[in-house]
Amino acid sequence: METRNLTVKQVSYCFFLSIFVIFGFQAHFSEAETHYREFVIQAKPVKRLCRTHNTITVNGLFPGPTLEVRDGDTLVIKAVNNARYNVTLHWHGVRQLRNPWADGPDRVTQCPIRPGRSYTYRFTIENQEGTLWWHAHSRWLRATVYGALIIHPKLGFPYPFPMPRAEIPVLLGEWWDRNPMDVLRIADFTGAAPNISDAYTINGQPGDLYRCSKQGTVRFPVGSGETILLRVINSALNQELFFGVANHRLTVVAVDAAYTKPFTTSVIMIAPGQTTDVLLTADQTPGHYYMAARAYNSANAPFDNTTTTAILEYKTAPGNAKKGKQSTPIFPRLPGFNDTNSAIAFTSRLRSPSKVKVPLQIDENLFFTVGLGLINCTNPNSPRCQGPNGTRFAASVNNMSFVLPKRNSLMQAYYQGQPGIFTTDFPPVPPVKFDYTGNVSRGLWQPVKATKLYKLKFGAKVQIVFQDTSIVTVEDHPMHLHGYHFAVIGSGFGNFNPQKDPARFNLIDPPYRNTIGTPPGGWVAIRFEADNPGIWLMHCHLDSHLNWGLAMAFLVENGVGMLQSVQPPPLDLPRC
């Protein structure tokens, strides 16, 4: 009898547990939302630096709208192109699992949205939270077409740090006192480097140190003792930046939508494409404090040597009343423009919060040289050969300067089985081995123009070592891999030594990123699992370098079954 009662109790317990689990799953899925937005790409008058320009914007906003979602949510964004240029949109850092059709790079995963046309991007956030962003991925339109993409944890899941009083997106940008597309057009014609920007911006405003800009300077109010979360995004086109807030310490808690072991610093270095989340506690004397950003320039090349500012404004600071006289804000101490030691000191402190899963048995061991080059001209005096010594600038990965196709996008050609658009013979190592960071023979300065992809089997464990070269100049190249994030397992200066350097790899708690810089005159190593089928662009996020060909793409083959295969393209996918 006791046994029978025990059995009944067990059955009843299992029944109620099953009901609880079913309702739990229903509650989980009911939490996820679908966000419908319309992004109208259009020219609007924007006044900066005393002059008004017809600037390409989204919904008339510069920067564009901030998207706020939760992990598990779906976004349905109709992009309507009312501008005069072809355009695509990229959701930077979103994994886009099995869905390259929503990734956005022009001529890679889609043909462009032509003027007067539209395309609806549909994608779901899967197991990601933190700060990402979106931007145009056609030519130089992203100079003004960009915005924040904030992914909050699922309901009921807290941050792994104390809840901040406020969360503030801080978008760092560049501004040209002319049409950025014209700047690129002239550079394309002459073969020379494009003109540098005229200002940096914080949330679209240059700040107090530029002409006609003081009235628009962004102010962030804060109460004494409050802790706020700054979601810093480098949306600049071509420049790595140092960023800091006067007299305040910044606690780094995440990069590229991946949490980190918290550490405190007075300055961060952030490359185009990267995001950094920092906690700031208002623990200073109530007043006005500049937050500022200026260039970290690792190359022997011209750059914009100005400084953008915003103001951290204590609510109880003297002079905050309408008629009160405000004190001059205190300025932060930022490193010098060429302070590589400070840049490396910051990035070397990044770690994952705990032990992470890093591929240990490597299937694809790739060694990629990244850097600039020069194309020789038959007529060096030509107006189309205004680069150094009558050449044209170029850039490459493993001496292959990437050429975007014209007849179709790579992904559409692959899916449709269209031949003649690309080849899959991208070299896994440089065609010629040389002293990459030494005095390189001029015979190795000219890359080969091609549209070559590297094929990966689904599930392959991949290691890439990015090796900077001294061709033209050494430089920190922020390399961005679409469709993936990766473990940054090591870096160093000089030439990578495959016999000695792997012994120093961090295979325990490396940080995860989607964009990583090569130390100037050095190397950086990453690992990831090729678990996302499709064609995925990898490129330098300095857009002048991307335009010169510093890119390649991976073709990740389908695995087994529907859940390891690319989903069919949407019906409204643009055609070339």
From TrEMBL:
Location within or outside the cell: Secreted, Extracellular space, Apoplast
Protein keywords: Apoplast, Copper, Glycoprotein, Lignin degradation, Membrane, Metal-binding, Oxidoreductase, Repeat, Secreted, Transmembrane, Transmembrane helix
Domain of life from the UniProt record: Eukaryota
GO cellular component terms, A-Z: apoplast
SUPFAM superfamilies referenced in this protein's UniProt entry, alphabetically: Cupredoxins
Listed EC numbers: 1.10.3.2
Plastocyanin-like domain location: 41-154, 168-316, 425-558
Record's keyword annotation contains Oxidoreductase: yes
Gene3D superfamilies: Cupredoxins - blue copper proteins
Parts of the chain that traverse the membrane: 12-29
Broad class of where this protein is predominantly found: secreted
Catalytic activity: 4 hydroquinone + O2 = 4 benzosemiquinone + 2 H2O
Biological processes, Gene Ontology terms: lignin catabolic process
GO MF annotation, one: hydroquinone:oxygen oxidoreductase activity
Cofactor binding note from Swiss-Prot or TrEMBL: Binds 4 Cu cations per monomer.
CDD domains the record matches: CuRO_1_LCC_plant (cd13849), CuRO_2_LCC_plant (cd13875), CuRO_3_LCC_plant (cd13897)
Function: Lignin degradation and detoxification of lignin-derived products.
This protein's name: Laccase
Species of origin: Populus alba x Populus x berolinensis
Organismal lineage: Eukaryota, Viridiplantae, Streptophyta, Embryophyta, Tracheophyta
